[in-house]
Amino acid sequence: MTSFEPAPGQTPPPDAVHPRDSSADTPTSVSRLNETIRDFVQRWNSVWVDGEITAWNLRGGHVFGRLKDADGAASLSFKLWSSTLQRLPEQLKVGDRVVACVKADFFVKSGEFSFTASAMRPTGLGDQLERLERLRAQLRGEGLFDPARKQPLPFLPHVVGLITGERSDAEKDVHRNAELRWPEVRFRTVHAAVQGDRCVPETLAALKTLDADPEVDVIIIARGGGDPQTLLGFSDERLVRAVAAARTPVVSAIGHENDHPLLDDVADLRASTPTDAAKKVVPDVAEQRALVQQLRSRARTRVTQRVQTELHHLEQVRSRPVLRDPESLLTGRAQEVWTLASRGREVMTRRLDAAARSSAELSASLRALSPGATLARGYAIAHLGEGVIIRDATQAAPGATVTVTVARGSFAALSEGEVAEAD
């Protein structure tokens, strides 16, 4: 830039003032300051730096990402052009530990400072990612990720508990989409830091408050995504175990599809975004009304078909002859009953007559065989006092008292002994 010598008493233009010569009366311009910084930065050589990839965003074939120290004390942003990306030995991703050759860039127009990576090679899994994977394996072994222990979400929650950042886009997305689906939905929101040192304790306190509220039927923990470094709080073991122990179903709505904190694994339901969480927690009133209308229509059709079928069966039954003239059934049966009754009387009469004749014959036989009939013809029965019937004259000794039984009564007689028979 050409040096400018102002006339006495004239203020030089800002572009003409070097930053080291600036003052309140003769300030330099932003462009001159940025150009000076750029000239200084351009004299830096490329350096090799060791770090962990915490962001890896591919846009237009180029990569825009971030590297951090192993202890997380510092980080830097970098860009990696497509031509360099094609020369990398393997596909890199968030969490990889790498060494990168970077050169500083300073953009005069925007005043932004960044680094361009000209080479990069992996050195192993990042320390934090490795610790997270060990914790993930431990929790999986304890059964905290088991689908059988996850609680089902209520069909229509009475109150939805929401844990998210204050005045965040995630909070607006959940409210807007839930209210569009079910206008009468009620929320109980507890704000908490969604990154940094306050994230875990504030989220734990909010979860405890909402889980103890008997009106809250489901809890959403929502954040609008971010790089893995900012999402570390949602992989904290204390928070993960608290969510697993919660009595109220918990929905994880942290970030986007490529984000995967441990909270996603232990939550009762994982939503890819806060908007997705609202759609999964609250039913769509329009869909439910359409479903009710469809069910009513199906029920009406089934009932109508059933009634018509039963009416047809009833008409078939009524068309039968016996139901058209019920008396015909009785008339035909009456003649049959009269015939059977007459036949029965005849049979009984014959049987009674036969029984009477048989009875008479038996009576005659009995009379003929009766001792009384024999006595009636003039015979008598003689027996001694002891009731011994006399069959031999020698049984009645002379002077013995003999009882004689005739047809009408008995009398006593005195035995004179055996009488000789006349010749």
TrEMBL record:
Every Exonuclease VII large subunit C-terminal domain range: 144-355
Pfam families the UniProt entry points to: Exonuc_VII_L, tRNA_anti_2
GO BP term, pick one: DNA catabolic process
Domain OB-fold nucleic acid binding as annotated: residue spans: 29-121
Catalytic reaction(s) noted: Exonucleolytic cleavage in either 5'- to 3'- or 3'- to 5'-direction to yield nucleoside 5'-phosphates
Entry keyword Thylakoid: no
Assigned EC number: 3.1.11.6
Function: Bidirectionally degrades single-stranded DNA into large acid-insoluble oligonucleotides, which are then degraded further into small acid-soluble oligonucleotides.
Subunit structure, as described in the record: Heterooligomer composed of large and small subunits.
Protein name, as recorded: Exodeoxyribonuclease 7 large subunit
The gene coding this protein: xseA
